[in-house]
Amino acid sequence: MKKHQTSICQWRPWLVLLALFAWLLPQRAAADDSYDKYTDLSIMYNVYVSGTNTVTISVPCYDQEGADAYIIDGNLYASWEGQGEIKLFHWALATKDQSSLDSDKNTCPISFTSDAPGYFNLKLGNTNGYERLDSKTSKTAQVVRNADGCTFDVSAVWVFPQEMLGKKITLWWKVQRDGTGRNKVWLNESAGLKNPDPITLPEASPVSPPFVSISTPSNDSKGKIEVPWTMVPEKISKLHYEYTDANNKLVSVNMPTTANNGSIKLNACEPHRNFRIIADYYEPQTIGEYLIKDAASEPQNLAMIHAPHGLTVTPLGGTNSKVEVKWNIGSVAYEDIAEIDFFEIQRSLTGKEEDFVSIGQVPFARIGSTAQTAYTFVDSTIVEAITEGMLTDGYTLENLTYRVRRGITKKGGWVANNNCAAR
Length: 423
What we know:
Layout: H1 2-31, E1 46-49, E2 54-63, E3 69-80, E4 83-93, E5 107-113, E6 119-123, E7 131-134, E8 138-144, E9 151-159, E10 168-178, E11 185-187, E12 199-200, E13 211-212, E14 216-217, E15 224-230, E16 236-244, E17 250-254, E18 261-267, E19 273-284, E20 289-296, E21 309-316, E22 322-328, E23 340-348, E24 357-367, E25 370-371, E26 374-379, H2 382-385, E27 401-406, E28 421-422
Antiparallel strand pairs: 1-2, 2-3, 2-9, 3-4, 3-10, 4-5, 5-8, 6-7, 6-9, 10-11, 10-12, 13-15, 14-15, 15-18, 16-17, 16-19, 19-20, 21-22, 22-26, 23-24, 23-27, 24-25, 27-28
């Protein structure tokens, strides 16, 4: 009895193994057409925003393990405001000879197309290189087998154009899988392939226009004002400044694009209304760059120097000889560089430069939004300053000369381009 029991125990493990094997056979056969293979798993289908101007799409292509499975018609559809349904990305097995696919192959031919704006960078499986896929074109490429020795996949980076920024995109899959020894099926939500959640592309970055400082008298150019400017972008495509002149004419001047800061020199005694700098520049993105056009500084009326003009000199009658000096300024509606300044008056009894002397000052000041247009100075010291040798025929000063300039222009001297008046 004991011996008989021992014999049964010895055979029992083999019976258990045979029963287990018999149970696994139908199960494995059923699994070959179930939705748990590499190509059928929803986690293998991914779409996500991957940069300031990129969206990454990763999808499976082929699985050599067991009953081969491959994508024969893979599609990612999309729509957004202003755009109906388009085929954002399509991939599919590129050979009809499916028997040519076996475990000895380390590459798999896949065809690609897209109707999306922009372009794609395709990473073809286990390789470091990328191939470009442009919109409205098709491409067939060899996808390299992964390190696991049996699967093939693709990562497609969509580089979208500037006009797509801020768009909310609705996405859905339509994927057909086939295989050797497997049934051809459409993978959908009921089969476990869930559609991606909507994605929102990054908003456009704020425009970085040039910044223009207030105008100041130039230190090295007589009769000029300097307008400092700067901008953050360094790669500039186009650059110019423009303003409206005293004759209501729009003036536009091109500028070099080799620097993102500098100083513009303009005639100091002319109005420059609605002055602004306008730039086209490139804004770096995750891949490539966007061209930003017509980034303009805030328009401003540049402060100027109201210089004297129309100088007249008139002798005054009476017992004490005096001379009246008069001059005008123009464009009084425009801001002056100096809120408070003065006019300096000089006189030369001989007309020679070395004989000029300062004989007085007249205040210059703005009142409200304008300044007075006419100024007067009376020279009451001329008689005392005359010597007999200066007179012609004993009674005339043939070379008597007066001149007037703004005090703020003193550093520039009495030259004509420093905007002084003489008579």
